[in-house]
Design goal:
- This protein has 420 residues and is mainly alpha-helical.
- The protein contains 14 helices and no strands.
């Protein structure tokens, strides 16, 4: 069962949510709330994966990752507080191994295929009704049919990797099994994010909420749920029903341009709808899951776009890959210019991001295209400080936003695979 894909899921959702609301308004202790979050997440994971094969995959994955976390935490907290780089990279590689197997191993057969929910949305070839299967349940790639795969493994892997990195930094010095289960398997964000951080999640998990504070969470949760229904089941549905289905088989230049804008809008409303559902349900449990979208198509430049689009993913890559690469390169003086380090950092960041979406060429090309946009923008930004060829004011600002929209929509056309 795909989370938030149809109304049947929302009926099942009442089982964990109603007790969570009662506990919230009853001002239950953090321990009671955290126990309910853990048990309801385990129950919903059982319902979502719903076959013994995928439950076994998820169980094997969780045990493997927890043992890695425990080993590395004990290593870092040992008497000598060791911090060997090669041990850290070995641990990261071991943690990534299941995801690598999922991405690269051949299909084991359609009867084993989990509907892994990647952030890429494959457009359905048949019309949908509000109660039918969503576009997330489209034909699956070989990576989604792979051994060890289960719904949400891509997003869960980011949570694990982020935790390992923060253990190395000395920011995490204790992990309890119950809290770890709640964090990794937190069902509202299991399939589509947003990607939370362990320390931020734990602070919500251990916070004592007053009735007024929970009321704020509850009303915000309802707002997000209504927004999710508007985005996914109305706007995205209409865009697909009356736009994409008719434009998808077309190959003329004008129809491809129409498809580019329609697909970009559909991708936003569909994915932002899922994110709104995840954030809203999280609020009912007292968890302030972070925002994932903030008017991305009104961005003034490509850097601003990535501060507004799939925010939890882009900030994860920025914090844990780009910034660390640039700072480490500066420390070790790998490059003569910091701009060179920044450019290579962007190439590394977006290439990995592209491959994370999938190993098909259009995902890799999408990553390279976005890296080129970021590198070009930083160059033009520096050049403008000298030449002053770009003015200031409302008209210039609107022009910048319109140009950014064209570049980002073209990037999403590459992402869709239709351009190739």
């Amino acid at each position: 069962m795909i989370p938030y894909a149809n109304f049947r899921f929302f009926l099942w959702l009442l089982l964990p949510v109603i007790p969570a609301i009662i506990l919230g308004f009853a001002q239950a202790s953090p321990r009671t709330r955290s126990l309910w979050i853990m048990h309801s997440s385990l129950g919903m994971v059982y319902l979502i994966l719903n076959t013994q094969v995928f439950l076994a995959h998820a169980l094997l994955y969780f045990i493997w990752e927890y043992l890695i976390i425990r080993f590395y935490l004990c290593y870092r907290l040992s008497e000598k507080k060791r911090n060997s780089s090669w041990i850290f990279y070995l641990v990261l590689a071991a943690s990534l191994l299941p995801l690598i197997i999922v991405k690269l191993s051949p299909s084991l057969g359609p009867h084993l295929a989990p509907a892994e929910f990647f952030s890429s949305r494959r457009i359905p070839q048949i019309s949908q009704t509000l109660g039918q299967t969503s576009s997330a349940q489209s034909p699956m790639t070989s990576s989604e049919n792979s051994f060890l795969s289960f719904l949400g493994i891509s997003y869960v892997s980011f949570r694990i990797l982020g935790t390992l990195i923060e253990i190395r930094d000395g920011l995490i010095q204790e992990i309890q099994l119950g809290n770890f289960i709640s964090y990794v398997l937190f069902f509202p964000t299991l399939a589509s994010g947003p990607i939370d951080r362990y320390r931020r999640f734990l602070s919500d998990l251990q916070k004592t909420l007053t009735r007024q504070e929970y009321l704020t969470n509850f009303t915000e949760g309802l707002e997000y749920i209504f927004r999710g229904f508007l985005y996914k089941f109305i706007i995205a549905y209409l865009l697909n029903q009356y736009g994409l289905i008719h434009l998808n088989p077309a190959h003329s230049l004008w129809q491809t341009i129409q498809y580019m804008y329609a697909y970009s809008a559909y991708l936003f409303f569909d994915f932002a709808g899922y994110s709104a559902f995840a954030i809203g349900v999280s609020r009912f449990f007292g968890i302030q899951t972070p925002e994932n979208f903030q008017a991305p198509f009104w961005s003034k430049n490509i850097k601003d776009f990535w501060n507004r689009w799939h925010i939890s993913l882009s900030t994860w890559f920025r914090d844990y890959i780009y910034l660390r690469f640039v700072l480490n390169s500066a420390k070790k003086k790998r490059f003569a210019s910091r701009y060179t380090a920044s450019a290579i950092g962007y190439l590394l960041l977006f290439l990995i991001m592209g491959i994370w979406h999938g190993t098909e060429w259009h995902f890799i090309l999408y990553g390279l295209y976005m890296a080129l946009l970021m590198i070009s923008f930083e160059f033009l930004e520096r050049l403008n400080k000298q030449k002053h060829f770009w003015g200031q004011g409302k008209a210039w600002d609107i022009l910048a936003r319109l140009l950014t929209l064209q570049f980002t929509c073209f990037g999403l056309l590459i992402f869709s695979g239709k351009l190739l």
